[in-house]
Design goal:
Binding site for Mg(2+) (chain A): 31, 48
Number of helices of chain A: 5
Shape of chain A: globular
Distance between the termini of chain A: 19 Å
Structural class of chain B: mainly alpha
Helix content of chain B: 55-70%
Number of strands of chain A: 6
Radius of gyration of chain B: 23 Å
Main location (chain A): cytoplasm
Number of strands of chain B: 0
Strand content of chain B: under 5%
Oligomer: heterodimer
Helix content of chain A: 25-40%
CATH superfamily of chain A: P-loop containing nucleotide triphosphate hydrolases
Mean pLDDT of chain A: 92
Distance between the termini of chain B: 45 Å
Number of domains of chain B: 2
Low-confidence stretches of chain A: none
Pfam family, one (chain A): Arf
Organism (chain A): Bagarius yarrelli
CATH topology of chain A: Rossmann fold
Number of domains of chain A: 1
Strand content of chain A: 15-25%
Low-confidence stretches of chain B: none
Number of helices of chain B: 14
Largest sheet of chain A: 6 strands, mixed
Protein name (chain A): ADP-ribosylation factor-like protein 3
């Protein structure tokens, strides 16, 4: 490919828009993750009533990330945001063992949704900075992730607070979206 | 409009220096004296004094905007000496300047104490914290007993899950203190607002929306946007209760706004929060602003 055609290609493909849904139980760290992705201050976060949305540029993509509140009362609204989703990020508080069952159920229900069929899913095993956090492998086992066969998936240990592991997860996101679009 | 433009131009240019010099020769007074003389106490005077001090080339005057409360007296003396102002010639000046500096330093001190309370994390092992949380329940739900400390019932006053402790997050104890303050000082009003929040279709989560409004109050304080409000409503040094009072105003007014606007669902919260935020910021641009809770008696007859 000559230089000119590369330039032409660059010019003709403005950032591709990607719709990402950020879901999980309340207090999982979705908003902290969203703000971390957008390089914003994370010290004054409050519980999400409704949703937040931010656009982040990454590796030639314009990621439109929808962070939907996780409290039980508004989970019925999640489905209103499923349409045209390119990728699902599911956030788990790795230190909140008492709610592993609940979070597993919610995830299983999401994976059963017709509108989300085949949509790649990244599971962030968040809060790895806490001493009591369960390792990602334990969570993967507990959630029976190995039984997922209808889509690509990945579990990524991270700390939205320190941002450790977040970039690795986002690299997987871009890779998966690329593969899906080809 | 035109005058404002000319004023802006003069103020931003070197001409301002000569303008002030000229005025000083004619009136025998410096800018600080002219402000104290020409404007009513409150934001009109204090904000102008603050701007004048900030843009001064004199280090003593510049530093005065960061003066500590206990150093106000000596700061006033210092400024008068620098500007060669004779107390006998303008006896009121000293009192007026002192009051402005008390308000200016008071605002900064208020932010520090609010920040301290925000940084205090809600801790279940802290008896005082736990007691305050239970008090919030009792104030809002006097006829319903809490079955246990960890229970779904917390959802009835708008927390997200079984244990409210995770909902305070970035606002820490400031969020809880605000909620309790409103319920304690304006009990009937708070319960009335809660009844709106629990409306099956128009409702919202009372407690976490409250914590969101604490964040709004906090960031308005931090940016300095609340200065005119406090300069107009508190003559001396503001107390942290004055901040909690402002929270009450926001909690009451937001509810009213929400009910009037009738959003399609709770998912629209952030859109209406921003609309409300803009409205409040608009009020704060008015020189006479005073965000004081005024309860319409038809809403809450017994408060």
């Amino acid at each position: 490919m000559g230089l000119l055609s590369i330039l032409r290609k660059l010019k003709s493909t403005p950032d591709q828009e990607v719709r990402i849904l950020l879901l999980g139980l309340d207090n999982g760290g979705k908003t902290t993750l969203l703000k971390q992705l957008a390089s914003e201050d994370i010290s004054h976060i409050t519980p999400t009533q409704g949703f937040n949305i931010k656009s982040v540029q990454s590796q030639g993509f314009k990621l439109n990330v929808w962070d939907i509140g996780g409290q039980r009362k508004i989970r019925p609204y999640w489905r209103n945001y499923f349409e045209n989703t390119d990728l699902l990020i599911y956030v788990i508080d790795s230190a909140d063992r008492k709610r592993f069952e609940e979070t597993g159920q919610e995830l299983a229900e999401l994976l059963d949704e017709e509108k989300l069929s085949g949509v790649p899913v990244l599971i962030f095993a968040n809060k790895q900075d806490l001493l009591t956090a369960a390792p990602a492998s334990e969570i993967a086992e507990g959630l029976n992730l190995h039984t997922i066969r209808d889509r690509v998936w990945q579990i990524q240990p991270c700390s939205a607070l320190t941002s450790e592991g977040v970039q690795d997860g986002m690299n997987w996101v871009c890779k998966s979206v690329n593969a899906k679009r080809k | 409009m035109m005058l404002g433009f000319i004023y802006q131009f003069l103020h931003s240019s070197f001409l301002w220096f000569w303008m002030k010099w000229f005025l000083r020769q004619v009136t025998g007074k410096c800018e600080l004296q002219r402000i104290c003389h020409g404007y009513q106490p409150g934001a009109a005077r204090t904000s102008r004094i603050e701007n004048s001090l900030k843009s001064s080339k004199n280090k003593v005057l510049q530093d005065a905007v960061n003066v500590q409360e206990d150093a106000v007296e000596s700061c006033v003396t210092h400024i008068m000496k620098e500007k060669q102002i004779k107390e006998q010639k303008d006896p009121k000046f000293k009192v007026n300047l002192r009051q402005c500096l008390v308000q200016i330093s008071g605002y900064n001190a208020l932010f520090l104490s609010v920040e301290e309370q925000r940084k205090e994390v809600f801790d279940s092992d802290n008896e005082a914290h736990e007691k305050m949380l239970l008090k919030l329940w009792d104030l809002l739900m006097p006829s319903v007993e809490l079955e246990s400390r960890i229970t779904k019932q917390w959802g009835n006053i708008g927390f997200q899950g079984d244990d409210p402790k995770t909902d305070f997050r970035g606002m820490g104890m400031l969020g809880l203190v605000n909620l309790v303050f409103f319920s304690e000082k304006y009990t009937a009003t708070a319960r009335h607002v809660l009844s709106h929040a629990n409306h099956p279709s128009l409702g919202y989560s009372y407690a976490i929306v409250g914590i969101n409004l604490t964040e709004m109050a906090y960031s308005l304080l931090r940016s300095g946007a609340l200065k005119p409000h406090f300069y107009n409503t508190v003559a001396g040094k503001p107390h942290i209760d004055h901040f909690h009072q402002l929270y009450c105003y926001l909690a009451y007014e937001f509810d009213k706004f929400w009910v009037e606007e009738k959003p399609a669902s709770i998912m629209e919260f952030n859109i209406y929060r921003e609309k409300f935020h803009d409205k409040v910021k608009g009020f704060l641009l008015e020189p006479e602003v005073s965000l004081v809770l005024k309860i319409e008696s038809k809403n809450c007859p017994d408060d």
